[in-house]
Amino acid sequence: MTGSYPILFPLRGANSINKRLLSSLKVINPELTVTLDLSIDPKKLNIFNGFILDHHIFGQDIKTSNMLYLNPRFFEKSDNKVVPTSFMIYKVLKKMFPEEGASWIGCIGVTEDHRVEACKEIFEDTEKNYPNLIKTKITQEDIENSIFGIMWDMVRSGRMVKGEEGTKTSVLSLIECKDRPDQFINGLTTNSYSVKKFYEKMVSEIENSLNDFEKTATFYRDKKVVVFEPKKVNLSGITSFLSDKIRKMYPEWIVCVVNRNQRGGKVKISIRIEQNKRETNLVELLEKIKINVPSAIGGGHKSAIGINMDIDELNNFFEELLASV
Question: Under CATH, which number does the domain 217-324 receive?
Fold first, then answer.
């Protein structure tokens, strides 16, 4: 739209809107501030002009002025019909620039958010432009097990291996290759080559963790809940990644991956279910648990949540979880 890349501040949760970030934004004094796919109270950014586009469950009373908060959950009550942020961006792009062939990028985000069936349009569009990318039925399971599942892993390998800078590299590689997904897949541009290397490193580390899973995970078979605490690895976002992988191995189970390697006596938990196999609403489950585990902070979607909490309440958290399912 502008002929130049935006200034990127990759964020990892609402708590990323801190004094340091606000100071950086004040120095830049942007004409427009846009936050995507993150549940943030707009009052935290209200000194700027712009908008927040999100699709997560967000329970706060939203009153906006300078910063608009846009979320389809305001008018769509059925969780299965709430489309992800990546699909909404695709629709805007398609309306403004119909000649763009970047729909395949949106497909990666839709796959990650488990909304393939709700967003078939974007895959059908991609199939017309890039028939070699889609060689399967357009279902969540089939697409996730296709090249889009691999590209999903490739994109997030940037953050996992190199943090904020790696995230920027992943985004820029997609922009470089927006008309040539084959270049992204094969690492044929400067940034996509780096992403390919990130991906190879991540795969090696993850294989070791998954090998440990069957040996060390705790299985609550009567509740179909599994809890896994991987060994420390040199990767960021490990809980989220592993919980997604294990969910595919145990689609009827609630999968919990725990990371104690957090600052300030905190622990991080990523919880996943396969939404087509189990009806549990993880956001509602978390709200019940919070009543007796006050340090638990987090949220997400019906089938995927992330939680940060005090490490000394970890046992209490799982006692409450097992009692609630």
Answer: 3.10.310.30
